[in-house]
Design brief:
This protein is mostly helical. It is built from 18 helices and six strands. It has helices spanning 34-38, 74-80, 83-92, 98-109, 116-121, 131-145, 155-181, 194-203, 214-227, 234-243, 249-260, 268-279, 285-293, 314-329, 336-350, 352-356, 364-373, 381-401; strands at residues 4-8, 14-20, 28-29, 58-61, 66-69, 72-73. α9 (214-227) runs antiparallel to α14 and α14 runs parallel beside α17 (364-373). The chain is globular and about 75 Å long. The chain starts with a strand and ends in a 28-residue tail after the last helix. It binds carboxymethyl coenzyme *A (CMC).
């Protein structure tokens, strides 16, 4: 007997709704028929209790601190795979074997260059523009360059767009950085790995030889893996909602980048590092925690708390480990901000304010420190997040387009504005 949930309406009438099971995680009440049967909507600003789609890509158990991509724990993926294997997994549902991996890497590698005219687009931006502003513009403009494959109903076109986006994001991010500091763009090199290529495009200059540091490349690759997908977060939902109208994938990813930019989402690692700089010293941690706990101060402990994780974010643990590796490699084990972050974390984890609200470090708490140590300027942090998340966004977009239940996203509202009234002529208002 299929499970149902019964809703009792104010007039005493009851309606049964199907309860749908997932493979793991909470069941959902399928309320699609509610409006038709009761003339009512549900009210759920911020989607606190609403599943907006069904998906087979990423699973999070926020209470247990578990994150799985296609069933694989993030810890195992971070340890045994590289970012392109994870991209393949997100796109196709399975990890690649050797042959599949070589083919995939070959295709991605051969799509890393961008059209020369796209390179010229950068000159239209002010050099002091935030690189995320540039990213929104440049990624959105890709649809003007690659309109040979924009038919979203054509599986081959969708695949080419996915390859192009994953392949070109490092080039576009690095160009945004190079433009902002007035250095020449660095073209990709096919014999380098995806992530080594990115590091070279970011940091090489024509005047000097660039040496790839494997420890630092591995750290950056791990940042990519940890940020690759996170089920229906704000930016992914933005990509899906934009795509639900039939918009092309480049426009959808540009919309996702715009959403990611906000400080409550991808901008948090930038905000976290600024916060650490502001605190300045371990001796000031107590005073700062006091401000955070004072509701009138408006101060939050950035890099702490999460809508879904009510436990330690598993990505934060991995990122803290990477932080140790990178700082050791660079001889920075006494890094001031890292020491400060560790002290802040320790105090917060023992403080009842954070414990009672289940506020734990999230991925952004340590990722800013790692990126800063890698030489990445703060303003580029969210661009790097967008590079990594493109893999998840495009996988989720693909999944939506091929979902037989896919419909244009059209939330409803509880209207609280004026009731019908008449317009007075201008001189009578
Ligand atoms: N510092 C201090 N108090 C906090 C914090 C924080 N970072 N986060 C939540 N709270 C308090 C909040 O004031 C509220 O307290 P009360 O119940 O007394 O009113 C309670 O905890 C619940 O918070 P909420 O704002 O209702 O929770 P939410 O699920 O709407 O917000 C969040 C989640 C991530 C926006 C929030 O925790 C936050 O602003 N954190 C700091 C920003 C941050 O680190 N963002 C990165 C998220 S992880 C990266 C990603 O996946 O994009």
């Amino acid at each position: 007997m299929p499970k149902t949930a019964t809703l009792k309406l104010p007039d005493g009438k009851t309606i049964d709704f199907p309860v749908l099971p997932g493979t793991v995680g909470p069941e959902v009440v399928d309320i699609r028929a509610l409006y038709g049967k009761a003339g009512m909507f549900t009210y759920d600003p911020g989607f606190l209790s609403t599943a907006s789609c069904s998906s087979s890509i990423t699973y999070i158990d926020g209470d247990a601190g578990v994150l799985l991509y296609r069933g694989y724990p993030i810890e195992q993926l971070a340890q045994h795979c590289d970012f392109l294997e994870v991209c393949y997994l997100l796109l196709y549902g399975e990890l690649p074997n050797r042959k599949q991996k070589d083919e995939f890497v070959g295709i991605v590698t051969h799509h890393t260059m961008v059209h020369e005219q796209l390179a010229r687009l950068y000159q239209g931006f002010r050099r002091d523009a935030h690189p995320m502003a540039v990213m929104v513009g440049v990624v959105g403009a890709l649809s003007a360059f690659y309109h040979d494959a924009l038919d979203i109903n054509d599986a081959h076109h969708r695949t080419i767009s996915a390859f192009r986006l994953i392949a070109k994001m490092p080039t576009i991010v690095a160009m945004s950085y190079k433009y902002s500091i007035g250095q020449p763009f660095v073209y990709p090199l096919n014999h380098l790995s995806y992530t080594a290529n990115f590091m070279r495009m970011m940091f090489a200059v024509p005047a000097a030889e660039f040496k790839v540091n494997d420890v630092l490349v591995r750290a950056m690759d791990r940042i990519f893996i940890l940020h690759a997908d996170h089920e229906q977060n704000a930016s992914t939902s933005t990509v899906r909602l934009s795509g639900s109208s039939g918009a092309n994938p480049y426009a959808c990813i540009a919309a996702g980048i715009a959403c990611l930019w906000g400080p409550a989402h991808g901008g948090a690692n930038e905000a976290c590092l600024e916060m650490l700089e502001e605190i300045g010293d371990v001796s000031k941690v107590g005073e700062f925690i006091g401000k955070v706990k004072d509701k009138n101060s408006g101060v939050r402990l950035m890099g702490f708390g999460h809508r879904v994780y009510k436990n330690y974010d598993p990505r934060a643990k991995l990122m803290r480990e990477t932080c140790h590796e990178v700082l050791n490699e660079l001889g920075l084990h006494n890094d001031r901000l890292f020491r400060l972050a560790l002290a802040l974390e320790k105090i917060a984890l023992e403080d009842d304010y954070f414990v009672s609200r289940k506020l734990y470090p999230n991925v952004d708490f340590y990722s800013g420190i790692v990126q800063r140590a890698l030489g990445i300027p703060v303003a580029m942090f969210t661009c790097i997040f967008s590079l990594a998340r493109t893999a998840g966004w495009i996988a989720q977009w693909q999944e939506m387009i091929t979902d037989p239940e896919y419909k244009i996203g059209r939330p409803r509202q509880l209207y609280k504005g004026a009731t019908k009234r008449d317009v007075k002529p201008l001189d009578k208002r």
